[in-house]
């Protein structure tokens, strides 16, 4: 039989195990190298979720597309110089969500991302986007000296580098199929393929 004291201790133990609270942070999705809002901005869900994870920010964002564009037409190849982490792909009858995360110690800088777009039979290309985050909404990182022990991460960050090579190979095959279909289609599609032709997906080497 659980005594009152033990029950109270158990309850206190659970309530004191504080979950990691995410800050909702607005951000801009920009055409690379400019201050102009990218056409892709409407697919990036606002706000991003930002948490302090050890000594870094862990930023989670979601790309939301409708079924009319096909299954997950946007793939993140790199974000802040490395492959995306904690990727989760979900869908229902009408929508596709591609959630991913990245780490950084500095969100005051512009964050760049390479993405691949493949709308089957219509458009295939690779683009670079830039993101700027609202500084007023960011949680505070604890400042440490170089001699201090790094803080332990509360949220695991998983990144599978081998998946990126497979991803790129699959995208190149899909892009080639799309461009072939567009060429066969002719007319307006020829204009689209002229814009996207030659923009093949290349594997990015992560920063050390």
Automatic annotation (TrEMBL):
Residues 18-151 form the NEAT domain. Residues 140-150 have a biased composition (Polar residues). One of its GO terms (cellular component) is cell envelope. The chain crosses the membrane at residues 182-201. It holds the Pfam family NEAT. Residues 140-160 are annotated as: Disordered. Residues 1-22 form the signal peptide. Keywords: Membrane, Signal, Transmembrane, Transmembrane helix. The keyword Ligase does not apply. Coiled coil: none annotated. The keyword ATP-binding does not apply. It is found in: Cell envelope. It comes from the Bacteria. This is NEAT domain-containing protein. It comes from Lacticaseibacillus manihotivorans.
